[in-house]
């Protein structure tokens, strides 16, 4: 295996974490046009740098067939890394010829991109100047470059991984929801930006590992949307939303990502909030005809589940809170309520958030009223708390 690794513009500080780890994993490397201080840095990182395997490094980079073939002939069958100054995908004109030569010898090639010698590296080394208010705006390329610079220069950003960022991705998603429900456009704009930053962050981490870039994310998404909307981008005619869903499921089933799925329920994240996941599963089942005819039937089922829950609670007695059967029956009640919400075209998760927000408002009113009266809620009787709750329902 030959791992072709981008060394960045030449400054050890601009060597991406992905490139450094890729070189260290192989343990030995040939560098092309690398400055002496970068070579010394690699050796200090435990990478054995081999010399003399490339006869003319300038011609090698420019794509000399003779020099490239000579290099490939010198490979001894052991894994080796080839460090290319800059990004091999943009700064190595001889890359296609090298890949063909490796293929002829049945040598596996891996490519780990690095920072390009120009454009991105130049923007990273230049200071970011404050923008005059309202006079100019950052664009998409600026954001990608800012992210790369943060990975180079910020200690916190440098130590992040896909796994460590999960909590922030979830938090930012919920903050977007809060902004939407708050109805303040400025807050929504800001929170969408925070969520977008998480996506760019994950793409940067993948770029450093040579897996994919943010451009690949955009390309994959765009192609998927075009592919799954033939009624918009093609000549397929649809008469209803139901037909749109039917086409969507059929097209999705044909994609490579669906090849390993054995159930209609595969692909629904297990980490979803429980109400949301339950509704998603019910929607999937309904698309194959496994569904109630109308909301009335679900209401009757809910009454049945409530009776079963009550019976289980009576049987368990004082141990109801620890009884597995009581827990199971309560879960059935909740699942049926989600089904009822779906049949009424209500988002169960959203309805629960609304109920939470309403309780939050009213309970805070109770607390404020008690403080204004010189009392504490814990000192009030149940009847007093109920009266205060009724007042809160009127006021909040």
Compact summary:
With 396 residues, the chain is mainly alpha-helical. Helix content is 60%, strand content 6%.
Fold and architecture overview:
The protein folds into 5 domains: 2-116, Tetrapyrrole methylase, N-terminal domain (Cobalt-precorrin-4 Transmethylase, domain 1), CATH 3.40.1010.10; 138-226, Helix Hairpins; 228-258, no CATH class; 274-346, MazG-like (Helix Hairpins), CATH 1.10.287; 350-395. Helix 4 (65-74) packs across helix 6 (95-104), helix 10 runs antiparallel to helix 11 (185-208) and helix 18 crosses helix 19. Helix 2 (36-44) links the parallel strand 2 (28-32) and strand 3 (48-50). It has helices spanning 17-26, 36-44, 57-62, 65-74, 88-91, 95-104, 120-125, 140-153, 155-158, 166-182, 185-208, 214-227, 230-233, 241-253, 274-286, 295-316, 324-343, 348-372, 382-395; strands spanning 2-6, 28-32, 48-50, 80-84, 109-112. It has 19 helices and 5 strands. The radius of gyration is 30 Å and the shape is elongated. The protein is mainly α and 396 residues long.
Provide the descriptors you would attach to this structure in a database record.
396 residues; mainly alpha; Cobalt-precorrin-4 Transmethylase, domain 1; Helix Hairpins; 5 domains; five-stranded parallel sheet
Assign an overall shape: elongated
The major pleated sheet works out as: 5 strands, parallel
Number of strands: 5
Mean pLDDT: 86
Number of separate structural domains: 5
CATH H-level superfamily title of the largest domain: Tetrapyrrole methylase, N-terminal domain
Given the helix and strand composition, which structural class is it?
mainly alpha
Q: What distance lies between the first and last C-alpha atoms, to the nearest angstrom?
A: 68 Å
CATH topology of the largest domain: Cobalt-precorrin-4 Transmethylase, domain 1
Count the DSSP helices.
19
Helicity, in percent? 55-70%
Low-pLDDT runs: 119-129
Proportion of beta-strand residues: 5-15%
Order of helices and strands: EHEHEHHEHHEHHHHHHHHHHHHH
Q: State the strand order across the main sheet.
A: 3-2-4-1-5
For this structure, what is the CATH class of the largest domain? Alpha Beta
Q: Whole-number radius of gyration?
A: 30 Å
Q: Per CATH, which architecture of the largest domain?
A: 3-Layer(aba) Sandwich
